[in-house]
Amino acid sequence: MAAGIKRAGGETERHARLKRLAFLWAQAQGYSACAMEVSLPKCRYRADIAAYRLTPEKIGSTAIFECKQALCDLRRDNCVSHAARQQLETICQRRQLLEKRLRAHYPNLRNGDSLFPEFDLPDLTVIGHRGYQRLLRQLRALQNRLYDCTKFDKLLRYRCANLYFLVLPRELFRDSEVPVGWGALVEVDGALTVVRNPIWHETTPEIHMRLLHRIAVAGTRVINRKLEITFNDIIAGR
Question: What integer pLDDT is reported at residue 67 of this predicted model?
């Protein structure tokens, strides 16, 4: 089946493949509880994949994965002008340069999540650097105007999970188009590779439990479908 051909339910083969790769990658990273099409707490959105990783003596960590198969899936329908794309690239390059300099000036700055050192990145926002804060505001505003990043930005603000990953085909990845705070997983030779680490976001124990519950609900829904258990069957068994 061609990558762009839609499967039953309107999902393309390519999108389904990205979801499968992300589902596999999450479990390989220790996220033993995973589900697809999970309704998220505190908002009306669904995640392509939500995952939970248990940690001894801690509440654990949660992650959300959003798969994008084509530019039209990532960008808004009104497209992007060449001038705006150039502006976005320029701002992104300035951000990367400034972050490199700030990390050099603040080598001991970390976000404090020692449980997950692979995501223990400096939280440069706590410095209060006006130029950096202004640059992030410009980047978010431009991304939200040019791309379909409103959902991405809201998920960060609602703190639905600790980590957020955008899952993309190799040819689709451009660093400037990955939303601020999100990580990027890129498909390379049939597997996913981390090309940008996400920023850790603290959440409350209540949100952890609500998301874990919704992961379980989504998983139960899949099993019910396979076993041909309907809602009427459940009601009849009460």
Answer: 94
